[in-house]
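Example record

One chain of 244 residues, shown exactly as stored in the release files.
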Amino acid sequence: MAEYLASIFGTEKDKVNCSFYFKIGACRHGDKCSRIHNRPTFSQTILLQNLYQNPKMDIHRAEAALFCCQFGRDVIGRPSTGALGDLWWVMVGVTDSHEQQHFDEFFEEIFDEVEDKYGEIEEMNVCDNIGEHMIGNVYIKFKREEDAERAVKDLNTRWFGGMPIYAELSPVTDFREACCRQYEMGDCGKGGFCNFMHLKPISRELRRRLYGRRKRAGFSSFDRFPERRRSRSRGRERDRRSRY
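Predicted structure tokens for this chain:
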């Protein structure tokens, strides 16, 4: 019996532990989930919740997107694909190249700051999902567990871009299991509301630069405000939601 329970732990057959939290480190039901979220006491991976603010998307548009996408249109009613979709973003002043530049700058700043301060990074990923529990989530996998633990403790006292950082250890260690296979093949029927990771890619040039250990110095959005002291009570979730 013990062997059977161990074999199904964290899978859909496990009726006690949440398979989504085990694989993704996030669950759309949150604290209301009927299954247990086993939060790790040690891990190589940390989660920085909702840290990336996509210029094309915010939490209010995400609510509208679920309805709009059913009619072949994206957020705020623009065409979801093709030349019309590209033209729409040009008209409002946000192009794919602008978005990629914005994302690359964000990614590089976080990567450099975290690796320089806490330790070597094996892998860093940012979710392109738009569900509230996944939007803008940043996952950082360190080479050493002790670096991840130190990063969580310190980052929870810091700010980025004018907002407090919410960091926690994550059970995710294999991002291949956490990612949406259909999205990687270019055909996820659930779109941005999928509960598996849709990872936002960085440019190839930036990937070569970062993982080739070439660093840059420059302006940092970290610590633009003094260290914070916050309760880790249930009120934390309400406070986080109020920031959108």
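Notes: The chain has ten helices and six strands.
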